[in-house]
Amino acid sequence: MYAERIEKLQNHFKSNNKFKEYIGHSAKVHSVGWSCDGKRLASGSFDKSVSIYTLDRERLNKETTFKGHGGSVDQLCWHQTHSDLLSTASGDKSVRIWDTRMQKCVATINTKGENINITWAPNGDTIAVGNKEDLVTFIDARTHKIKSEEQYNFEVNEISWNNTSDLFFLTNGQGCIHILSYPDLELQHVLKAHPGTCICIEFDPTGKYFATGSADALVSLWDINELACQRVFTRMDWPVRTISFSHDGQLLASASEDLIIDIAFVETGDKIADISVDAATFTVAWHPSRYFLAYACDDKDTYDRKRDAGSLKVWGFQSD
């Protein structure tokens, strides 16, 4: 049933496996993400800045750099239907919202701690940000006011809403996924997902699955309605830091300190392709309508090995 599709995808990437590299920062890139229309790619860095690139058919062009954060930009996420709006979480105890059309920061929301992760509800109403002290702050995306704060007594790693914005998910240090109703934040389920810390979580665009990456080097795929684990992806040897579903929900990219990024076929776990990298990978993100994968590694400068390269790469361009 899937053999034909798997072969077709494998063949696609045999002839579309070129990457292009862009130097946008003076220190390592922590987070990359595409705007919902796929026209822009953003990167957030340890150098406190956010770079915006525009995608023009087969190349990226640097459009602008946003400065203003006083600390490392650890994670960013775009509004899921408004292609100009981007939010960033920083170690400077603030969240910023940027408008790429006006090319400026339109809101700064001060929070209690050093922020490490951020997610924007798919309906656009709320931004949630988590800090190093496991406090999650919910921000009204229209008024830019804090709606509520929730303190957890366990290590909160990544946070995310489901695609309908009525359930809120947290991954934690005990290998569990906590599922809360939203907006009332009542605990609905605790899934024991992994023996090791649950690091990242991602929802597939079709609304069928979510996946989590763990310190045990595994990625688990869950049926969102049954809350049952469908399969486990086992090709990594190191803690899985970052995962991303392709626009059609067929592919799942996973990355870690392994020197490859794994591209798996979601329905069977078969390997479709892999991307060789030179260092640990912090962030991966599929384009919202094409088979382009943006990613950033802990690369060092070619000439000065003590310096970070500050680069990001996009893979999936046609090979010559």
Written description of the protein model:
46% of the residues are buried. Helix content is 4%, strand content 52%. With 320 residues, it is mainly β. It is globular and about 50 Å long. A hairpin with a 3-residue loop joins strand 7 and strand 8. It contains 1 helix and 28 strands. The strands form 7 sheets. The chain has a 4-stranded antiparallel β-sheet, with no helix packed on it. It has a 4-stranded antiparallel β-sheet with strand order 2-3-4-5, with no helix packed on it. The longest helix has 13 residues, at 3-15.
Question: Would you summarize the structure shown here?
Answer:
The chain is built from one helix and 28 strands. The chain is mainly beta.
Task: Give me the strand/helix succession.
Answer: HEEEEEEEEEEEEEEEEEEEEEEEEEEEE
Number of helices: 1
Strand order of the largest sheet: 1-28-27-26
Largest sheet: 4 strands, antiparallel
| Beta strand % | over 45%
Distance between the termini: 32 Å
Structural class: mainly beta
Report Rg: 18 Å
The quaternary structure here is single chain
Task: Give average pLDDT, whole number.
Answer: 95
Shape: globular
| Portion of residues within helices | under 10%
Q: Give a count of the beta strands, DSSP E runs of length 2 or more.
A: 28
- Would you identify the regions where 5 or more consecutive residues have pLDDT less than 50? none
